Amino acid sequence: MKNQANLCLSSAAAGFALILLCTAPLHADETCMSPYMAKIVGQEDYVYVWTLGIEGVGNEQDKLVTIDVRPDSETYGKVVSTLSVGGRNEAHHSGFTDDRRYLWASGLDTSKIFIIDVHSDPGKPTLARTIDNFVKKSGGVVGPHTNYALPGRMMLTGLSNNADHGGRTALVEYTNAGQYVATHWMPTDDNLQGAEKTGNFADGYGYDVRVLPRRNVMLTSSFTGWNNYMMNLGTLMADSEAMQRFGNTVVVWDLHTRKPHKIFDVPGSPLEIRCAWGPHNNYCFTSTALTSKIWLIYEDDTGEWQAKAVADIGDASLIPLPVDISISADDKHLWVNTWNDGMTRLFDISNPHAPEQVMEKKIGAQVNMVSQSWDGERVYYTSSLLSNWDKVEAPEGEDLQYFKAYAWNGEELEHAFTVDFLAEKLGTPHQMRFGAYSLYGK
Questions:
Q1: What is the spatial distance between Cα 385 and Cα 321, in angstroms, rounded to a whole number?
Q2: Contact 282, 276 (CB under 8 A)
């Protein structure tokens, strides 16, 4: 393992320095991470799991769970530390700062953000700071979701707002030290902010964010507001009006100016965005939760950005509910998880305009997040989606709330170990991030 920082410096139109990617490919660990971050090239030491506290299980608090994944360690496959943050906040997503010294972990219900020190002792993270005024500082944004590293900054996506708790929301920018910088509201029909509306929707919804620095592009996707994501899933699906309140857009932004450029119709709630790593591969993928499709967001031969559905994921009539996706470092494969049926599917994306499914495997009664190592040899899964959406029981022989590690040999997933989060009284595991001593000279 070694720290890679093949970055070049360019000035930003917004008035502060941005570190832009050189055209040579970078080495990185999780293939969904920001290109600006310090990287792990080889074997990761730990996986940090941002975990929801649930009533009647352990201390009932949200927590960061650290799992040892070093094959030669005496504690391989075991939980080596937990960091409880107090209360239940609807723990959901997390992300490192660009220097990877701190992990920002947020809660969709309370809108609290926990800044966690992972560099002092990577095997035992500690809480450094809590941001509890996100809604006030941001001007009414609720539900910080993606915590995404930019040079010296963190860009956070919101899911909702405090006016009506619907899906209208914004991007919120902070310094690495946790100082509020700016709020960038999503474009809507009544305020396109200069963006081109290419279809029927300009809903102002948000979910994920990713960047392609060499193309000066930032992309955002869309989900739903607090009223929906905090509702019981059965109740939600039976409410026809509520089911209309899901996002249907992907927005292309100017990265430097933070201004929206183009709004695409991507019906059915596009969730995670994953961008290609190749220096000439100017495209990203997303999947739609409600319509079960893979969408390609790409730059055409004229330099214009376009969007189109390129593949189906399972049988949409059975509501498999696509959730997390992960692109391989060589841009040849895309892992796609479907929460409702507990399946992971692998698509060959050598031709990004025509993905083909090449493998599928049942992981558990439900499956949400997937993280793969940069070398493609290890794939990790977690199970929890949202506290009010998760299943409460599993069929005989199927795991319900878990962290699972697999080896990938190019043809099949080989199970390495499982941590049962309910049996361990930890809660329900959501998102994963990798840690390594080598990043800090340890």
A1: 11
A2: yes
Dihedrals phi, psi of 103, to nearest 5 degrees: -110, 125
Three-state helix/strand/coil letters over the chain: CCCCCCEEEEECCCCCEEEEECCCCCCCCCCCCCCCCCCCCCCCCEEEEEEECCCCCCCCCCEEEEEECCCCCCCCCCEEEEEECCCCCCEEEEEECCCCCEEEEEECCCCCEEEEECCCCCCCCEEEEEECCHHHHHCCEEEEEEEEEECCEEEEEEEEECCCCCCCCEEEEEECCCCEEEEEECCECCECCCCEECCCCCECCCCCEEEEHHHCEEEECCCCCHHHHCCCHHHHHCCCCHHHCCCCEEEEEECCCCEEEEEEECCCCEEEEEECCCCCCCEEEEEECCCCEEEEEEECCCCCEEEEEEEECCCHHHCCCEEEEEECCCCCEEEEEECCCCEEEEEECCCCCCCEEEEEEECCCCCCCEEECCCCCEEEEECCCCCCCCCCCCCCCCCCCEEEEEEECCCCEEEEEEEECCCCCCCEEEEEEEECHHHHCC
pLDDT digits over 113-144, tens only? 999 999 999 999 999 999 999 999 999 999 99
The tokens describing 232, both together, are 């019981």
Pairing state between β 413-420 and 333-338: unpaired
Cα–Cα dist 98/121, whole Å: 18
Q: Is 438 exposed, middle or buried (0-12, 13-18, 19+ CB in 10 A)?
A: middle
Question: Tell me, what DSSP letter sits at residue 332?
Answer: S
- The model carries a pTM of 0.93
In 3-state terms, what secondary structure has residue 318?
helix
Looking at the DSSP bridge assignments, the partners of residue 220 are 209, 251
Alpha helices of 89-194 — where are they, by DSSP H? Answer: 134-138
HSE of 69, CA atoms in CB hemisphere, 13 A: 33
In the structure encoding, which two tokens stand for residue 355, read together? 């993905």
Q: How far apart are CA 362 and CA 75, in angstroms?
A: 27
Query: Could you give all domains of the chain from N- to C-terminal order, each with its CATH number?
Result: 7-440 (2.130.10.10)
Q: Where are the alpha helices (DSSP H) in 131-178?
A: 134-138
pLDDT tens across 220-233, in order? 999 999 999 999 99
| Tokens linked to 400 | 């319900």
**Rounded to an integer, what distance in angstroms lies between the CA atom of residue 129 and that of residue 133?**
12
pLDDT above 90: percentage of residues in the chain = 89
Cross-strand pairs, 117 = 102, 126
